[in-house]
Amino acid sequence: xxxRAQIGVTGLAVxxxxxxxxxxxxxxxxxxxxxxxxxxxxxxxxxxxxGDFIPSESMADFVASIERPxxxxxxxxxGGPTDAVIAELVPLLxxxxxxxxxxxxxxxxxxxxxxxxxxxxxxFVGTGVSGGEEGAxxxxxxxxxGAPESYETLGPILEDISAKVDGVPCCTYVGPxxxxxxxxxxxxxxxxxxxxxxxxxxxxxxxxxxxxxQEIGEIFAEWNKGDLESFLIEITADVLQHVDAExxxxxxxxxxxxxxxxxxGRWTVQNALDLGVPITGIAEATxxxxxxxxxxxxxxxxxxxxxxxxxxxxxxxxxxxxxVRRALYSxxxxxxxxxFDQIAAASEEFGWDIDRGAMARIWRGGCIIRARFLNRITxxxxxxxxxxxxxxxxxxxxxxxxxxxxxxxxxSQAALNGVPTPAFxxxxxxxxxxxxxxxxxxxxxxxxxxxxxxxxxxxDKPGVFHTEWTRDRSETEA
Length: 478
Ligand code: NAP
What we know:
Elements: E1 7-10, H1 14-25, E2 30-33, H2 37-47, E3 53-55, H3 59-64, E4 71-74, H4 80-89, E5 98-101, H5 107-119, E6 123-130, H6 132-138, E7 141-144, H7 148-161, E8 164-165, E9 168-169, H8 179-209, H9 213-223, H10 231-240, H11 251-254, H12 264-275, H13 280-292, H14 295-301, H15 317-350, H16 356-362, H17 374-383, H18 394-417, H19 422-435, H20 441-452, E10 465-467, E11 475-477
Parallel strand pairs: 1-2, 1-4, 2-3, 4-5, 5-6
Antiparallel strand pairs: 6-7, 8-9, 10-11
Helix pairs in contact: 1-6, 8-12, 8-13, 8-15, 9-10, 12-13, 13-19, 15-18, 15-19, 16-17
This protein binds NADP nicotinamide-adenine-dinucleotide phosphate.
């Protein structure tokens, strides 16, 4: 077997198959392999004309068909299957070869794998890929981590097959070891928040205006022409206007209201807890999915828990719609601001040196959270690469400032009328918390010192202090 493939893909389910086709369509001779040969055969049978594929039944033949340094994309189920494929690959590879894990790995696994393979002289590039099967085929957003040297040869190929916005590839080197998968994880967390916020906006329009799904779909389509323009708003307009063929009802009304999750939202929240970063929008979105799936609890509560809620009295329909739009946009800015804080904190913790502006740039196309407003985030980090808070960038301060009165009206009306808006409300609470001159955390510190002698600092002089609460209440410097 002559080693002439420029890249190889093992794992040919929907994602791997489409990525392999994307490489081939861009003129790369692409080696393809799957544990069960049937998927490899069907790829060649159905799409062999996409480009130059080299199919192999065995892993050994697959590896032998790739030119050195080999670039092997692993696109299998995350977790154990990825470890199994790596274990099979490693004895067949040589120093300087590159394994690209393009699955949805948890970043600590990527850090572990990268460290283990580095000892063997093999580069391990944990790579976030977003955009689902459509993106994999036509241009995803790609977030590669690993050693910078590996990006020198791999980067141009990945940039080539990635989505492009204004001619700029939606792919860049993210940072060492697990940085790529970390950024993909936060991307997914932000996606959770984005989706929850859209769902809350839909619910408010439905309950507040009594509007039909069709009408709300039209409102979203209108919003998609402005600042909110994004893939998720676009598909929301589409989904809401879709009619179920069987019943003739709005499709959204025949879907069971239990949102599932595969785990990246949960990972994002777990990591934020570890790092001590408040990502309330993402956390509320994750918990809202969990609440929707809390079947026995919901059954015990529906019709039982008193609401004592008012009823909507909307006199100006257009003003209400505009309030919801502004509340949505402001809450969205908070969710992104928090997500970028998390990236900054992890970058610091793990020494990744992640360029946040570049992350916003590569999310502009190909991925699920692609949106016009990501340009604004890139611009904010270009103005100040060390920006401590995205919300504090002049552009965001201005737009959120313009929306904050609407935001307060919507959150308070929702509370008064008994409509749950966990992401809208928690985002506003975060906004008010982070801008507060003084927080009641002083009382918490005092309580902690009272019951646990945990000490406190004073506003009027440096040092760490403790009060003898149960004795004479004298203060000592710790
Ligand atoms: P998948 O359903 O997650 O995985 C199926 C693939 O894994 C098949 O090729 C299967 O081979 C292989 N596999 C499973 N266990 C294996 C093992 N022990 N040894 C070798 N191969 C094994 O496929 P997918 O939906 O295409 O996703 C692939 C990866 O991309 C996942 O990590 C996923 O999380 C990630 N991802 C998916 C999406 C999406 O929209 N689907 C988006 C972004 C990222 P057989 O055919 O032999 O069973």
